[in-house]
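FW: tagging you since you asked about this chain on Friday. Here's the raw sequence from the shared folder, copied in full. Didn't touch anything.
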Amino acid sequence: MMNDAILSRRQFLGQSTQAASAATLASVGLLGLSGAAQAAVSDYKALVCVFLSGGNDGANMVVPLDPVRQAQYARLRGPAGLALSGTGLTPARYSPLMTAPAAGSQSFAFHAALAPIDRWYGQGKVAVLLNIGSLRRPLTKAEYLAGGKAPGELFSHPDQQVQVQSGLGAGSATGWGGRLMDVLGGARALDAVAVGTAGQFVQGASTLANLLPESGGVALNGFNLWPQADGTERMKALQKVLATNTGNRLSNAANQSLADGIALANTLKTATAAPLGTTFPSTSLGAQLKTTAQLIAAHAKLGPGRQVYHVTLGGFDTHGGQAWQHGDLLAQLSAAVDAFQTTLTTTGLDRSVTLFTASEFGRTLSPNASGTDHGWGSTSLVVGGAVKGGLYGEFPDFTLGGPDDASGRGVWIPRLGFQQSGATLGRWFGVSASALSTQVFPGELDLFPRQDLGFMG
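HL: got it, structure written out here
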């Protein structure tokens, strides 16, 4: 759809229509909120979903160091060269297990590639959500084996991507971030943004998601002329044409939509030109989070409001070559998140923005030669100044065929559902408990006894 941040007129028109929500961008744009939205919130906050596409191996992202699990982990993954130890891990940490059924503590370490994340954890700004995944309700192994209570189409990439991004085990056409915005009644043009790759998370019923390139900028073909004065004159002529009443409602609406898109492009150009004072890594995720940080900085200056963002890091379908591939991906994740969090901290926005990782499923503890197969429960990270750092939930029992294993290969039945983590973030975002139950996670959140996991301050 986009090539070097340049759109054709037809592509730009489609993009503008999506971003403008009918034809209101010119009048609303980034100038402020409607009265209804202002009444809903009194401060600025943003949620950023980093989607790890392909199925992230949580077992090597955060590794338990208690003797029993560590021995099982090393025995199973060691022969394939996938077991991490020594320099492959960050220094050991020890934490109480929050929200676990029984009080206890856990020793653990991050993958060495996540050393920057480990440093933020040391500052109390990272929550680790253990064995989280797609559920429709809390589920025991006996219930799973009896059938009928698990989400459908388990271990399928597209189906479980829909489930995690919608926040519902039954799936939905909208995303839970978009539904948060539906409830709060956002009114700015860029309340819901996917950067780089489309993401269902930011699409609501009335909230229309925007798709921007990694650079954050868009422009029309045919206006980048030399001398620039010629391009400026051509743009003035186009704007004059677009402002003309054609006498045809459809034509007028199309012209207004394109005019709104041009205004949006100018706003994006200004926002993404602002220096951040932080060097982001020269990776795709680094570029996506840099654009996200620039847009957040621009929006936060406008006063009270809410935004949801979606960025993507792909390549986590590690059936082979996992030892190097997964480490490289985690290094990309860690470097980009570190730059993003550093930017938020230096600009005083770290308590206003929360970033979290999500993936469609985890991977089997038991390897297949040099990789792993599709699993279920995995590990998610939540990062931000408003986060109450620590371990939430608990690691599964690492016994193959044990009480947490759905398959005999280390496919962990999740103990935490995406509804619970989403509701925890949603309450911090300003959505009421009743709206979370009836509008954001309808029919499923109320099935979980604990709806706030407590990792947000």
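FW: The two ends are 40 Å apart (CA to CA).
HL: agreed, and Residues 249-273 form the longest helix (25 residues).
FW: great, closing this out.
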